[in-house]
Design brief:
The chain has helices at about 5-30, 65-70, 85-100, 115-120, 120-130, 145-150, 180-195, and strands at about 35-40, 55, 75-80, 105-110, 140, 155-160, 165-170. It has about 200 residues and is of the alpha/beta class. The chain has a single domain (about 5-195), classed as Glutaredoxin (3-Layer(aba) Sandwich), CATH 3.40.30.10.
Length: about 200
């Protein structure tokens, strides 16, 4: 149960994230160049919602990837589902980032939020994670709790969270759809956040 103070704080964070996403929606309508968008300065103070859920794949534990444990790291958080072709097109880029940023300065987290009943079954997700050679932590989100907390709208979506735990950049959709150049853009943003 959320206390009154925590409830207001959560409301402000979620409301701020919703405003940021609305702003990003307008930006994305301007074309692929606006797809990786810096949140406005007043929105960059929006803390990333805490991840909830106990079902992790690849050895992660909820406590080990809590918001306090991620402070001091850049977090690449992506929402996906295994039958989404757009999501699958992005998977090689997450693996490249995993190789490019080894160690403890950057953490990649996948949040698997299903679209279909088949994707809801934990054993199906575990098998796909293995088949797709995903080795970073994946949080199962079968009831869309994280999806809703993050005001998520589409698969795939990638969030960059800075070392202080604030959402700084969002990319919705395939990184390289129609030559958008998202991989290079997001890589530069990750590097910049890592230097902060």
């Amino acid at each position: 149960m959320i206390g009154t103070h925590r409830g207001r704080d959560l409301y402000r964070r979620v409301a701020g994230l919703a405003l940021a996403l609305a702003w990003l929606t307008a930006a994305s309508a301007r074309g692929a160049e606006a797809s990786a968008t810096t949140l406005a300065t007043n929105l960059a103070t929006v803390a990333a919602p805490e991840l909830i859920g106990q079902a992790w794949l690849n050895g992660a534990k909820n406590a080990s990837l809590s918001a306090p444990s991620l402070k001091g790291k850049v977090t690449i958080l992506h929402f996906w589902t295994f039958d989404c072709i757009n999501c699958r097109h992005n998977l090689p880029y997450y693996q490249r980032w995993q190789r490019a940023f080894p160690g403890s300065s950057v953490q990649i987290i996948g949040i698997h939020t299903p679209e279909t009943e088949r994707e809801r079954a934990a054993e199906n997700v575990a098998q796909k994670v293995k088949d797709l050679a995903i080795t970073y932590p994946v949080l199962l989100d079968p009831q869309r709790e994280n999806w809703n907390r993050w005001q998520q709208r589409i698969w795939p979506a990638i969030y960059l969270v800075d070392k202080r735990g604030h959402v700084r950049y969002v990319w919705e959709g395939e990184l390289e759809y129609q030559g958008a150049g998202g991989y290079a853009k997001m890589t530069r943003l990750i590097e910049a956040l890592a230097r902060e």
